[in-house]
Specification:
Elements: E1 2-5, H1 13-30, E2 37-40, H2 45-59, H3 63-77, E3 81-86, E4 92-97, H4 106-122, E5 130-134, E6 138-144, E7 149-156, H5 161-178
Parallel strand pairs: 1-2
Antiparallel strand pairs: 3-4, 3-7, 5-6, 6-7
Helix pairs in contact: 3-5
Length: 183
C-alpha cells in the first residue's frame, strides 16, 4: 500500500519530519499487517511525478536488466546519458548517466515536454516517433523504442547523430530479445 502524505511543503522545515512520522505511525497502527510505503508530497506536480516514477520503477520485474542494458548501451555509443520513459504515462522508467548535469529536474522537464507534444499529436493523424534537439553543448535524441516506451539519448555535440540513431535501432532489437514486457 502506497500512502502519500500531502502538502508537506506547507509545514515548517523544523517540524516536517516529526509531523510525517506522526502521520506514518497512525497508519502503521491501523494497518499493522500490511506492507506500507510512505511518501512526503507537496501540491507541486513535480513531487507527485517523482514518487509515481519511483513506484513505477520499483514495480518493474526486469529493472536490474533494464539498468544494465542502459549502462552497456550508453557506453557503446559514448552517450552522456540514456533513459527510458513510459509512452502512456510519461513516467520515468530507468536511466544510466555517465556525466553530471546541473539541472536536477532535467529528466522530469524532458518527460513533461514530450508528454505535451504527444498529447497535441494524439488527436491528429501524426504520431510522435522521434525528435532531435540541439544546443551548443549537447544533442538530445528521443525515439520511440518499443510499444511501451521512448528512449532518450543525450550525446555530446561532437558525437555523430546518425551513428546514435543506428544504435537506437540495434539497441531496440537487443532490448526486445533480452528484456520482455515493460508495462
Amino acid at each position: 500500500i502506497y500512502i502519500f502524505i500531502n502538502k508537506m511543503d506547507t509545514i515548517d522545515d523544523t517540524l516536517r519530519d516529526s509531523v510525517f512520522n506522526e502521520k506514518k505511525s497512525l497508519f502503521e497502527k491501523k494497518l499493522e499487517k500490511s506492507k506500507l510505503s510512505f511518501y512526503q508530497t507537496s501540491i507541486w506536480e513535480i513531487s507527485l511525478y517523482n514518487i509515481f516514477c519511483q513506484i513505477f520503477s520499483e514495480s518493474l520485474k526486469n529493472s536490474e536488466k533494464i539498468q544494465k542494458f542502459l549502462e552497456n548501451y550508453a557506453s557503446n555509443i559514448d552517450a552522456d546519458e540514456v533513459f527510458l520513459f513510459n509512452k502512456k504515462t510519461s513516467l520515468f522508467i530507468s536511466s544510466y548517466t555517465n556525466k553530471e548535469f546541473n539541472d536536477e529536474n532535467r529528466i522530469e522537464k524532458i518527460c513533461f515536454s514530450l508528454k505535451r507534444i504527444a498529447n497535441k499529436l494524439k488527436n491528429t493523424e501524426n504520431r510522435f516517433k522521434e525528435m532531435t534537439i540541439y544546443n551548443r553543448n549537447i544533442t538530445i535524441h528521443i525515439n520511440e523504442f518499443n510499444e511501451f516506451c521512448y528512449i532518450v539519448v543525450i550525446l555530446p555535440n561532437n558525437t555523430k547523430l546518425e551513428l546514435a540513431k543506428l544504435n537506437v535501432e540495434i539497441g531496440r532489437k537487443i532490448f526486445e530479445k533480452e528484456i520482455n514486457n515493460i508495462n
